[in-house]
């Protein structure tokens, strides 16, 4: 570890470093990040790009008294390093280790937990208003990226910031603009920022205009005076847009986001301002590590890699569920021109990059805007298109009302392809896809499917794209389960698939947790039991005919799902049995009313009791 970084053991220790050594410290921090993240994996490129911004905040502010909210929070590693957590970095994103996102329970310097995008300005405004109501005088800052600024909540918060302007109360937004979301940033705001970036800083520009006018003999001085006095001021005439200023937010730009001294100057100036200020800092994603600078998308979130070459240590050998989805969609779209694909800023993660390559006119990246994406899809569907919205399960939580109000009430044929459904591992609590059954299965008109393996997906997708109404397919992060590929009955609305007949107990397996259920069946057979196994396939509508048969045959029914038990499939089966006056014993396995912390998926399954061994144990306990 670097000599200077070694001196930073507690919050505010950075203030003891001599200013002339700040660039050296920045270098040491980058080296530390690279050493650690190359071993643990994590969100590297965004953190490398935010080193100077975070250092400047820690130099200008006091922690924990002052408050910084990091948007998404994937770029908060340097904040963690500077607030006494650097010695825990080898545990980053691992079970019981340091979280990859800010966390109130981890440090009093993490004032607000994040993970999902575009929340920082709202949260910071709340912190600022609370400060003012209590007549405190701490500084409040939101650090938001250009990608996160494409999300709807950010605009709602910018709109609401006018309350601070009225009261002449301070709040600072640092816009960390690197022209990148995970992929290249898109949309009108991104274009606006590009436009600002291509101009000189406002103050420099204003001074130039004023002095140029003053130098025009005769009329120049009076024009300059008139312009200065005019209500809308000189900037209205000469600076296009002025979006932030017109909303009552003072704009400080452009600031070189890798010049620590320039940043310190801007933050100290912003602290004195009466009202909200936005500092527009220009940064480079992956700064200081050539591999990441060249390919920021690859190094946005990366597994362990070789620092020298930038190559991943674990080579991908199997197809992922995402790959199968992407290939199938490309194939299905060839003969169906109505298919259009939508992503909310996740073209790589959802696999839609390949769709974009083949059908660029039918591909839409709407930015980090899940709510909009759903209603945009509804509009397309209302005009006869067949939109496919590929989205991570936890991010689709944002679009709940739009699914209900805009899609399902009107029974519009939107196909939701819900990736990262179930346990996701190292991203932890904010990113688990364990609520989708609960938030979709009670909405009238919604159809919800889950494939047991990769082989089943293309048939399900074909079915979905021929279905005339809202329909969703959920599938997990990671490699496909290749087992049971000989079972591939045609997909029929509301029909489950019986894998094995049995006698003592039947396991109803929802989606890819089949991998564990199939193993559990084998273990139970080895122990002399005779379990049945069913691939649920359709969570909604349920296969009620089959449920009646099962209830008549098996004394014990077991449901297994990678979903919160409350509102999950098990509860749906329970309600069915109760309503129809069946008295079978029912054992429902899933996540039991807690937020799942970062760990490996295998560890998370074990904790939830839905790995093969735990399933076997629970069943035997129950039968005894
Ligand atoms: C609601 C939501 N949708 C999508 C994401 C996935 N996501 C995480 S970071 C990111 C890009 C953020 O870009 P930016 O704010 O510019 O930060 P940078 O990584 O460039 O520093 C996206 C799309 C998310 N975290 N939350
Ligand atoms: C910070 C964030 O929200 C994303 O970067 C997310 O971590 C990506 O997850 P995957 O690695 O599953 O694509
Ligand atoms: Mg960015």
TrEMBL record:
SUPFAM superfamilies: Thiamin diphosphate-binding fold (THDP-binding) (SSF52518), TK C-terminal domain-like (SSF52922). Keywords: Isoprene biosynthesis, Magnesium, Metal-binding, Thiamine biosynthesis, Thiamine pyrophosphate, Transferase. Mg(2+) binds at residues 146, 178. Its cofactor is thiamine diphosphate; Mg(2+). PROSITE patterns: TRANSKETOLASE_1 (PS00801), TRANSKETOLASE_2 (PS00802). Binds 1 thiamine pyrophosphate per subunit. Thiamine diphosphate binds at residues 74, 115-117, 147-148, 178, 289, 370. One of its GO terms (molecular function) is 1-deoxy-D-xylulose-5-phosphate synthase activity. It comes from the Bacteria. The keyword Transferase applies. SMART domains: Transket_pyr. NCBIfam families: dxs (TIGR00204), PRK05444.2-2 (NF003933). Catalyzes the acyloin condensation reaction between C atoms 2 and 3 of pyruvate and glyceraldehyde 3-phosphate to yield 1-deoxy-D-xylulose-5-phosphate (DXP). Belongs to the transketolase family. DXPS subfamily. Homodimer. This is 1-deoxy-D-xylulose-5-phosphate synthase. It comes from Anaerobutyricum soehngenii.
